[in-house]
Write a structure and sequence with these properties.
Distance between the termini: 18 Å
Largest sheet: 6 strands, mixed
Order of helices and strands: EEHEEEHEHHHHHHEHEEHEEHHHH
Helix content: 40-55%
Strand content: 15-25%
CATH class of the largest domain: Alpha Beta
Radius of gyration: 29 Å
CATH topology of the largest domain: Rossmann fold
Structural class: alpha/beta
Number of helices: 14
Shape: flat
Strand order of the largest sheet: 3-4-5-2-1-6
Number of domains: 3
Length: 428
């Protein structure tokens, strides 16, 4: 196993930068750089010199001995002053040590998984945590990183192994009188496991939307105040506003943190019948994006819904330009009236779609969960035929367990590993 190294902190000038090494020769590398091996898990102030004894920097050196480290290997961290010159000099020095090489993207985390420090779902949770932009994304990613999905998978797996053991015991003593009918217990185990799998799978869609971000389309007739509202929400002039109908012709996107939810607001072309070919293209694009958006906010001055705007149950309709009608309820992007109410309504709708305790967050998770559940459904159907078909039931259970194993990276995941780890930054 090679000893790998990389910068683990962000690029650019900083107060402190972190260089990490991992592998069987990490401690030997530390000895080369500081003249001795610091005591494990003790922050040690030392001069980094290298073999030529020229001082590179005065740094904090921390050693973690295997298996008590992030990767499960010997790990050394150099906490140096965040000068570009210092970092580059140190990386160059380390690269000249014969038993080291620069780490590939995500290689530290990959080694952690291969050494049993985390399962595949935790790896995905870590990637999501690094990418988290809002509080809701952080909470969700932290739940996955904590190993919650792996714990649930182990619970489901234990139930299925219990059911398999009951069936196998019956098959092993098929020629003898078995006093206990295992069918009721097996049926109960399969049913409750299938129910939990389906529930977990059902929450993936909303969890994935939270991870990627929601889209909210602002629709309405021309000059109803859509662009003004977008600017008010964004706190800047993101869209051009004008009294001239048809000013907005393409979809304008503004991403923001809305009470912890990552939301991209879409300012769209005003909906109306028009002979202008370019404006018609803009309207068609507006309707298409609104249809695919998670939610629509429709602005209307008279309560009418423009032609082509197909609203869903939890879409929001608000009276616009309420500043022109003193005392009326509604919203005004110009004065800010009603904006807090709108934000509250949007976040309530989005929060209502979330399953707050869901641990599965990716399409890959959903596929594995549904695959396992489908095998269990088949197994229950076969189970009702009686003991003569127990062997077929047992085979379906083996397939269901295998699907759960792929969920946490035990089997059949080589095809997705490279894609997952390639999304990691260098040094993680």
């Amino acid at each position: 196993m090679e000893t790998i190294f990389a910068r683990a902190s962000a690029q650019g000038k900083a107060g402190v930068s972190l260089i990490r090494l991992s592998g069987p020769h990490a401690f030997a590398c530390a000895e080369r750089m500081v003249g001795f091996i610091p005591k494990p898990r003790v922050a040690t102030l030392a001069e980094l010199t290298g073999e030529d004894k020229q001082i590179i920097d005065q740094a904090i050196v921390v050693c973690f001995n295997a298996p008590h480290s992030f990767t499960g290997e010997d790990v050394v961290e150099f906490h140096v002053h965040g000068s570009t010159a210092i970092v580059n000099k140190l990386l160059k020095k380390i690269s000249k040590i014969e038993f080291t090489r620069i780490a590939d993207p995500g290689e530290f985390t990959r080694r952690a998984m291969e050494n049993g420090k985390m399962d595949l779902s935790q790896v995905e949770g870590l990637a999501d945590l690094i990418d988290a932009e809002t509080e809701a994304q952080r909470i969700q990613a932290q739940r996955v990183l904590s190993g919650e999905l792996g714990k649930r998978a182990e619970r489901w797996r234990s139930w299925l192994i219990r059911a398999s053991a009951l069936l196998e015991a019956t098959l092993d003593f098929a020629d003898e009188d078995v006093p206990v009918d295992v069918t009721p217990e097996v049926r109960s185990l399969l049913s409750k496991t299938g129910h939990e799998l389906d529930r977990e799978a059902a929450g993936v869609t909303s969890a994935e939307r939270l991870r990627e971000g929601f889209e909210v389309a602002i629709l309405g007739a021309p000059n109803v105040g859509k662009s003004t509202l977008l600017n008010a929400l964004a706190g800047r002039e993101a869209a051009i506003t004008s009294d001239i109908a048809g000013t907005t012709r393409d979809v304008i996107e503004v991403r923001m943190d809305l009470s912890g939810f990552p939301v991209t607001f879409l300012d769209t072309a005003g909906l109306r019948d028009t002979a202008d070919a370019i404006e018609k293209i803009g309207i068609d694009r507006a309707l298409a994006r609104a249809e695919s958006a998670d939610m629509i906010v429709l602005l209307s001055q008279d309560g009418t819904v423009p032609s082509g705007a197909a609203l869903r149950t939890d879409d929001i309709v608000m009276k616009s330009k309420c500043d022109l009608d003193p005392g009326s309820e509604g919203i005004s992007g110009l004065t800010g009236a009603g904006i807090d109410e709108l934000v509250s309504k949007i976040t309530d709708v989005l929060a209502g779609r979330m399953m707050k305790d869901n641990a599965a967050t990716r399409e890959r998770h959903q596929i594995a969960l549904l695959k396992s559940s489908n095998h269990l459904s088949t197994a229950i159907g076969i189970l009702e035929r009686g003991p003569d078909y127990y062997e077929l039931v047992a085979e379906e259970l083996r397939s269901a367990i295998s699907a759960l194993d792929s969920l946490i990276g035990r089997v059949d995941v080589e095809m997705v590993l490279d894609e997952i780890f390639s999304s990691f930054c260098l040094g993680k």
